[in-house]
Amino acid sequence: MATRSVRIQVLGPTRAWHDRVEIQLGPPARRAVLGLLVLAEGESVATAELVDALWGERPPRSAVNVLQTHVKHLRRLLEPGRTSRSSSDVLPFAGGGYALNPEVVEIDLLTFRRLVAGVNDREDDPERVAAGLGEALGLWRGRPLADLPVLAAHPKVVALAAKHREVLARHGDAMIAIGAAADVLPDIAEAAADQPLDEPAQARLIRAYHAAGHRARAFEVYHKVRARLVEELGVDPGPELRAAHAILLREDDNDVSPPVPVRRVLGVPRQLPAPASGFTGRTAQLSTLDALLPDGGMAIAAISGSAGVGKTALAVHWAHRVRDRFPDGQLYANLRGHTGGGAAPPIEVLAQFLSALDVPAERVPLDVGAASAMYRTLTTDRSVLVLLDNAVSPDQVRPLLPGGPRCLVVVTGRDRMTGLVAMDGARAVKLDVLSPDDALELLARVLGAERIRAEPVAAAEFAKLCAYLPLALRIAAANLADRPGYGIDDYVDELREGNVLWALAVPGDEQTAVRAAFDLSYAALPEQARRLFRLLSLVPGTDAGTEAVAALAGTDPGQATRLLDRLAGAHLVELHAPGRHSFHDLLRRYAAERTMEEDTAAERESALRRLYDWYLNAVDGAARQLYPHMLRLPTPELTARTPAGVTGPAEASGWLDAERNLVAAVAPRAPPVHGVAALRRAAGLLLDVHAGSTGWRPQAGLAAEEASREGSG
Kind and range of the H or E element at 554? Predict the structure, then answer.
């Protein structure tokens, strides 16, 4: 029976001892196996997960045998008295994997956890807190698993390093409180140097210098960090720094005068999408929005309505009409409230907004509360229009509300934002389908007024069959516009004769109305365009670049561009940015139905395999430009390894910012197909390293966490 004569260290280089004699653990891969088992803290780690962590997406055929050999050697080293036939007490096989039994092995990580937990209920006793945390910190001998670079980006290693910083901070506060600041000044100064824009760390250093009798040095730190915040972030010190400074001033009001707040000029964002052509009607709603223009307090408009009713069109049209009233800029975000890839987390949007306000991406806080506070600070004295499109809930919106009384927020969503109305003073703007007259006006803008006047009865029936829904009207009219010799009356007969088109006349059934209009537009497409339209429903996220679409379809970018242009002409996709297409989520749902009906499972899997292989190689190509010396996992060899136009670090960074849908590609909802696990690992590592890519940095920890959780995919 094994005893606790075995001791393992991971808070620093990976080491182990048996009866106080150090064990030579062997090659890095064997030490990595031990490290992964220690990080699991007694939980079983599946064989497939260990294989995936050691070899990635393409393990050798002998991977399981090699892993078993590593475990065999570890058992022999850690249990020298065990016979080969007896079961292992230290490394038992359990639940399809291996576990490190914490009952029979002393592990520094678990001791650290226990000591920290022991002081969590003693915050009112700083002496005991200082003693307990000091003992816990005494276990650290460097970075966790410092001898295993392959695990440096592992989410549990990253989280453990963050926990170390947290405990260091708590210990520093306790030592200052008991009058022992001088003993921890070097540690506090080192932490502050590592985090030059972390206000709590800098405030702690000011308090430590003050408590240790170095008041002049404390003033110097305050003024340096204040200047740094103004220069790099354009913000003044927050409450914690101001409080530390105020304590210094109270001792001698004549020593130092509070500095005059200084702000650097921020950029003026212009993020509004292009307005929809042929906008029609909505007179009452436009008047309601006009009445909300700020006159002394921030205003919020919550536009709600069914899918395809024109919420975004109204919001964007009005925003362009009044944008000159907001000289400090306009911010826009699609919150993806009703898309297959999942709603946009507030931290992702905050990162986008802070970048637009000239905050360097590496300075964007990872915590949503801190990022939201920075955003409110930057907008406090500014007049900004914020358009939050396709929201899913008030909780998604609240962190994105600016702080200034001269700001205005427009939120769109399918659900009534009752919480925003009740708790945040938002004005509800309900949007219904168009009136018959406005629907005819919209048709006239697409088809031409003369064509409507020539067949007024058929045109009225056309609008009625489309349930007066703007999206259905636009798509059906665009389809008819491409058939100039075809009468409106003929088209109405075609609508009535379709398989499910009778449902278009059912009052309130906008979904059916849209589906029927889609049917006609879809049927008018050539086969290659229909196939591409179906496959686009498989793309994660809300949009796709041309090269990714080409990979999905198994064609070249030129042909993909031609097919996308054909779909855009039929209003089935939208070119919303150069080289990037998206479509309405109702169209996505319709395309998903078509691919399930018309494409085999093997065809869908093959398309996804091509897409994920392309993404994997594109991420690898971007990494080569950004970090040519960074160790990368092997990737499938395809023709193009780097996205077109990515010829240097700046272009690679820009490509990562544009490819925000890669976050959906590595999210839990991503399909379990070949290539997902490898993409999770490659993207997780790159995102964790590449803090300069605005939309990615807040997702780095999530991507890395998913890479670990999914294991082998």
Answer: none
pTM greater than 0.70: no
Whether pLDDT at 346 is above 70: yes
Whether residue 385 contacts residue 322, with contact meaning beta carbons closer than 8 Å, is answered with yes
Q: What mean pLDDT do residues 606-621 have?
A: 83
Distance CA 590, CA 214 (A): 69
Rounded CA separation 639/331 (Å): 38
DSSP tag of 515: H
Provide the residue type at 408 as one letter: L
Q: Identify the CA nearest to 361 among candidates 371, 372, 373.
A: 371
Other CB atoms within a 10 A radius of the CB of residue 469 amount to: 28
H or E element in which residue 70 lies: helix 63-78
CA distances 369 to 128, 194, 319, 350, Å, are 30, 22, 28, 10
Task: Name the nearest CA neighbour of 33 among 41, 18, 45.
Answer: 45
Q: What is the pLDDT of residues 535-577, one digit of tens each?
A: 999 888 778 888 889 999 999 888 998 898 888 766 678 776 7
State whether residue 9 is helix, strand or coil.
strand
Strand partners of residue 18: 6, 21
Residues facing 544 on adjacent strands: 581
Strands 93-94 and 6-9: unpaired
Residue 413 has φ and ψ, to the nearest 5°, of -170, 160
Please say if the pLDDT value at position 610 is more than 70: yes
Please give the structure tokens belonging to residue 703.
């991507």
Q: 594-603: which pairs have CB atoms within 8 A and are 24 or more residues apart?
A: 594/522, 594/530, 594/533, 594/534, 594/537, 595/534, 595/535, 595/537, 595/538, 598/534, 599/531, 599/534, 599/535
- Cα separation values, 375 from 219, 237, 412, Å: 27, 14, 21
Helices (H), 332-469: 346-356, 368-379, 394-397, 418-424, 436-447, 449-454, 456-465
- Starting at the earlier edge strand, list the strands of the sheet with 427-430: 330-334, 385-389, 408-413, 299-304, 427-430
Burial-class residue 655 by CB neighbours within 10 Å (0-12, 13-18, 19+). Answer: buried
Task: Give residue 4's pLDDT band: very low, low, confident or very high (50, 70, 90).
Answer: low
State the CB neighbour count (10 A cutoff) for residue 686.
Answer: 25
Closest CA to 397 of 381, 383, 410: 410
**pLDDT tens digit string along 163-195?**
888 888 889 988 998 888 888 888 888 888 888
Query: pLDDT tens across 75-131, in order?
Result: 889 888 776 666 788 888 876 788 888 888 999 999 998 898 888 766 678 888 899
CA 675/CA 704 separation, integer angstroms: 16
Per-residue pLDDT, 622: 72
Bridge partners (DSSP) listed for residue 409: 300, 386
pLDDT value of position 3: 47
Q: What is the sign, positive or negative, of the torsion defined by CA atoms of 378, 381, 385, 388?
A: positive
Q: Within a 10 A sphere around the Cβ of 527, how many other Cβ atoms?
A: 7
Q: Is residue 516 pLDDT above 70, yes or no?
A: no
